[in-house]
Design goal:
The chain is α+β, with helices and mostly antiparallel strands and 93 residues long. It has a single domain, classed as Alpha-Beta Plaits (2-Layer Sandwich), CATH 3.30.70. It is built from two helices and three strands, in the order E-H-E-E-H. The protein has a three-stranded antiparallel sheet with strand order 1-3-2. A hairpin with a 5-residue loop joins strand 2 and strand 3. It is globular and about 40 Å long. The C terminus is likely disordered.
Length: 93
């Protein structure tokens, strides 16, 4: 279920996915909610493009550290490729 930033107080949020489009973010919210996984999502900036790199805005999905493995498994079962294990791997600005 989608949580506010208060949910992560005292924890280091783990980045699990960067949705570059709203049509990717909305279904993932439903998938995580249906699986009973608590998560946070917030807009943030990342670099996009191969030749002409520019700053773009995406939806960054986070979970508490203890729920990362479960969230990643659910995402993979539904065709989502999770971010690398460390936070900030989306080359955020």
């Amino acid at each position: 279920m989608k949580k506010d930033s208060d949910y992560f107080e005292g924890y280091e949020p783990q980045l699990i996915y960067i949705a570059k489009r709203l049509r990717d973010a909305k279904p993932l919210e439903s998938i995580l909610t249906d699986a009973g996984i608590d998560f946070g999502v917030e807009p943030d900036e990342y670099y996009g493009g191969v030749i002409f790199r520019r700053i773009r805005t995406g939806a960054f999905f986070y979970v508490r550290p203890g729920f990362r493995e479960q969230a990643v498994a659910v995402m993979q079962q539904n065709g989502y490729k999770p971010e690398a294990e460390q936070t900030g791997t989306g080359e955020t600005v």
